[in-house]
């Protein structure tokens, strides 16, 4: 039995063009750019709405990355990106899509994945990242990861609402000590974060 959110990729005949694109991106070792991942997200969100399928969304960032880069140089940013993309490639499905939102922030889309499964993926990636060795100039560094997550529901009308919700959750996680996984729903229950507008 496979773990929730870590199902193996479908057979070749059942893959969408988006899923194939995701696998090709991982095979080449490249991450999707901001424009590419947002375009793919728009496509997956439309598919989710049309077929009433769930869609999970994660935003991930290494804690205090800007300060660490100031201390250790841009080589650290490259080392983190390589290690992180390798981890996601190995531990998620071929249909899952990973891209950069900024130099230090990553967006991971999980088609056909509900909120509980999205949480399972986030928790597992968070735990696995803690064991990843990242070194600069031969010197290993201790880095931690924060993750904000959400998933589309019937009330989610626009794809960028998911990004806004995941960003709200990530910002809450980082501002409350970092090294944690937080869902958008949790930030609303705690009452510390306003609900982002559902806009086009």
Write the topology of this structure.
Blueprint: H1 17-28, H2 34-51, E1 55-62, H3 65-72, H4 74-91, E2 97-100, E3 105-111, H5 115-129, E4 134-136, E5 139-141, E6 145-151, H6 159-175, E7 181-183, H7 184-190
Parallel strand pairs: 6-7
Antiparallel strand pairs: 1-3, 1-6, 2-3, 4-5
Helix pairs in contact: 3-4, 6-7
Number of helices: 7
Report the CATH architecture: 2-Layer Sandwich
* Helix residue percentage: 40-55%
Q: Pairing-aware structural class of the strands and helices? A: alpha+beta
Overall tally of structural domains? 1
* The level-1 CATH class: Alpha Beta
- List the strand order in the largest sheet: 2-3-1-6-7
The major sheet is characterized as:
5 strands, mixed
Mean pLDDT: 83
Percent in strands: 15-25%
The whole-angstrom Rg is 16 Å
If you consult CATH, what is the topology?
A: Alpha-Beta Plaits
CATH superfamily assignment? Reverse transcriptase/Diguanylate cyclase domain
Task: Summarize this structure briefly.
The chain is of the alpha+beta class.
Structure description:
The strands form two sheets. This protein has a five-stranded mixed β-sheet, sandwiched between helices. A two-stranded antiparallel sheet has the order 4-5. The N and C termini lie far apart (39 Å). It is globular. It has helices at residues 17-28, 34-51, 65-72, 74-91, 115-129, 159-175, 184-190, and strands at residues 55-62, 97-100, 105-111, 134-136, 139-141, 145-151, 181-183. Helix 3 packs across helix 4 and helix 6 crosses helix 7. Helix 6 links the parallel strand 6 and strand 7. Helix content is 48%, strand content 18%. With 200 residues, the protein is α+β, with helices and mostly antiparallel strands. The longest helix has 18 residues, at 34-51. The chain has a single domain, classed as 2-Layer Sandwich (Alpha-Beta Plaits), CATH 3.30.70.
